[in-house]
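Please review this one.

:::
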Amino acid sequence: MSTLSFSLTNKKRKTITLIFTDQLIALHSTIMAKIKTVYTCQSCGNTSPKWVGRCTNCGEWNTFVEEVEVKQTQSPLPSRSASGAQPQKLSEVGHGQVERIDTRNSELNRTLGGGLVPGSLVLVGGEPGIGKSTLVLQVALDLTDRKILYVSGEESIQQIKIRANRLKRENDNCYFLSETALENILTHCEHLEPELLVVDSIQTVATSYIESSPGSVAQIRECTNGILKFAKERRIPVILIGHITKEGSLAGPKVLEHMVDTVLQFEGENQYMYRILRSIKNRFGSTSELGIFEMNNTGMREVSNPSELLINRDDEGLSGTAIACAIEGNRPLLIEIQSLVSTAAYGTPQRSSTGFDLRRLNMLLAVLEKRAGFKLAAKDVFLNIAGGIKIDDPAIDLAVISAVLSSNFDLSISKSLCFAGEVGLSGEIRAVNRLEQRIAEAEKLGMKKIFVPANGKALNFNKYKIEIDPVSRVDEFFRKVFRKEK
């Protein structure tokens, strides 16, 4: 500690004191500048100098969290310009086919578009306990011919060992690491040089260059960017597991979905054994594909023919059920539509739907009321798609109104009948896409007859063994189905 000599004159002592005071003020300003805080929306990443209740960018409430704003003076990764990459014309780029990595899982390969692309980032999201970590661990343990690094920030290696024993799988080429620091993860990757990197989950990873808690917008953005640079430079595919919010969307900033190459989301209820892996974004394949799995004691089992599992053949003779032929991606599915129509107990009718859009159900009920004369306004209507799956294909409209009318009049529909058609607001049966593929799927599963739109593409009925009955309006359809059923 420095002291001033008393032999100095008052003028000199005053000058030195002013110099020390200016230095302290400058030091204080530097410290305050480094610990400047901002409020960041955890939904979209919008920033504000002060706390606000509602985000002006995305409209979400109570999403602003105080974070320390630090200007990053050093990057955790070397600049990508150091790799020596040069601009090229498309004509100079070779025509070599990119070899995808087979995950040894046909349903996952279908959803990815044929397998993992080297250097790609795949984000897998879903509800807690739906099977994200189980599926990814299965893939890591099945790829016995590739070196894999599985990084877990939520479980210890002992816990992963217990889950691997339940799956009854082993892989000596799969290395496990329990770590949350991005710098340590990338250091191990450079030393191990894996052919596949798995991070479970991205919300637990943090970098020391950002002064905020793990899972914040800044941490997720910077950590994903660091992993992205590493994956593109080394051409290593990366699978990231992400959390979702209570609204069902992926947690973290929306920029996270823009940064990755593929976004896969698990759907399905925890009470049901079926899971649907749907592609929301895919730079290397179609977003209309989906994979279907069954959860059992040994993990996620692939369902190659879901139509046989989604249809119950034992309830023949019961009213309120109909078989619809839907298309999900490139795959035709035969699903069972269940309906229950009863008199409203309290005067106000209820409308409930599981797996089907409730607004579309109300529209179909209005069409039946207005165009066909069926009085359903004072009755409760409940609709369910068996198996706990969700279908958005409008071609199942015909099966929906069949199940509703079957329950309303207590008339059963034979399980050998199948339906494929969209219902319009005027009561007409509209054409649907890929009708030939739907008919072929119904014939393969032993259906005797299928009702299709009459105004669709001309079909060669002779090449099918199944009977095809074209219908054009709802009232005509009702007479053909239910009068014969009597």
